[in-house]
Amino acid sequence: MTTNERQSRYRAKRRTEGDKRLSIWVKKDVADALLTVANTLSVTQKHLIEKLLLSAIATLKSTRQLA
């Protein structure tokens, strides 16, 4: 199986599982901060972003700022 075929299979599996792919540009200082915090906490950048956003949603819901 070629690299392209493996990547296509991987992306298809992720889509089937309901995952979404994001591609964004951020300022260098933001990218550096993300890397620093993730490394300090020994987590991936992906994991850090997921946890921060889910925590923010939980906080908004608990303060009834989000339905």
Plain-language structure description:
It is a single chain. Helix content is 69%, strand content 0%. The chain is mainly alpha-helical and 67 residues long. The model has no long low-confidence stretch (mean pLDDT 96).
Feature tags:
extended
Q: DSSP strand (E) fraction?
A: under 5%
Structure classification: mainly alpha
The percent range for helix content is 55-70%
Largest sheet: number of strands, sense, barrel closure: none
Rough shape? extended
- Could you tell me the radius of gyration in angstroms? 16 Å
Helical region count?
Answer: 3
**Strand elements, count:** 0
- What is the string of helix and strand elements? HHH
User: Could you name the ranges where pLDDT drops below 50 across 5 or more consecutive residues?
Assistant: none
Mean residue pLDDT: 96
State the separation between the terminal residues, measured CA to CA: 46 Å
Helices and strands in order, then pairings?
Blueprint: H1 3-16, H2 28-41, H3 45-62
Helix pairs in contact: 2-3
